[in-house]
């Protein structure tokens, strides 16, 4: 009997697309034995078909016409590795409407348009698989949808952006400032020329939205995520956190609470003994707590051509198996609940604060009074150093509602003894 072939159309041949093509070619025999079919790349959409990409490509496989892939009825799986929410979103919609299965690594598209795309899979009875959209080569989407499906997930907390984790790691190890480390990350290719998406937390927040949607079976889009980045973190904050027994990480956090689902992305102080505290450089990790499994953590490379390609090709293999066995969409959208989100003002955390104040008797009493009036209890207060008539205070609160802390901070700005609130960073993983 001749071997069955399933044809694939690849949208994009950049860093990730090139990695996908290399893995498909290098491991073709192994993939065929595991799936029972031969996967053939029948078309690749690119902007410039004449550019040399350093790959051994069959003649005629490159095209700059999307219809050559989307309208080809022999192509059953479309792999989108273009990124963004412009043409990529349109192409994926068209592919799903034509009954093709889609594999994507596009976090932006899934975080903003996931519901619409999953609705199309029900119409066409096809797959929409997106393992690579959250943490590159780290398996987490499949883990939440299948491996931990018997659990009621209580919390997910992750280091989801390699650029910011690299920067915070270097700041911690070397005591350097934010701008210096950012320039180093750009020189090494870890950070873009415009680093806003990474350093202001938007990249991690989109991944947090996807994780929250799957963990809690409720559609949560990117705009619903509370976001702060790391651009206000200083070398002083790193030093004081270390002295207090913490490390600072940018975290995506989702929690199940009686008041609703918490969905937030921001820097946080983590105790040194927390599993995520030891995740350094460009590595990512996702910590999951379930009611049956307890605590688990998934660690690895969250970006890069081959780690991301590993997840993309695994999804292609799943889509191919489902086509062979005629069960596409067997595990589709899992957002079957409509659970409320918890307002950020009601989220409860411990907090680290750094203040610049006038150095004279009675100042601490005035500050403590403002905190007390707003039901904010202080766990620790330390004067770090003085410069002339000014001093720097580091405070750690007990767990407090966000709104109470905000009210207290507003009260502090009205005190003439408080020159500046230098930073406020939440504390996680202490309980």
From TrEMBL:
* Keywords, sorted A to Z: Amino-acid biosynthesis, Metal-binding, Methionine biosynthesis, NAD, NADP, Oxidoreductase, Sodium, Threonine biosynthesis
Pathway this chain belongs to? Amino-acid biosynthesis; L-methionine biosynthesis via de novo pathway; L-homoserine from L-aspartate: step 3/3; Amino-acid biosynthesis; L-threonine biosynthesis; L-threonine from L-aspartate: step 3/5
| Catalytic residues, chain numbering | 207
One molecular function GO term is: metal ion binding
- According to the UniProt entry, what is the EC number of this protein? 1.1.1.3
State where NADP(+) binds. 11-18
Superkingdom assignment: Bacteria
Q: Which Pfam families does this chain map to?
A: ACT, Homoserine_dh, NAD_binding_3
Give the record's GO biological process terms.
methionine biosynthetic process; threonine biosynthetic process
- Entry's SUPFAM superfamilies? ACT-like (SSF55021), Glyceraldehyde-3-phosphate dehydrogenase-like, C-terminal domain (SSF55347), NAD(P)-binding Rossmann-fold domains (SSF51735)
Reactions catalysed, as given in the entry: L-homoserine + NADP(+) = L-aspartate 4-semialdehyde + NADPH + H(+)
Q: Which NCBIfam families match?
A: PRK06349.1
Indicate what this protein is called per its UniProt record. Homoserine dehydrogenase
Record organism: Desulforudis audaxviator (strain MP104C)
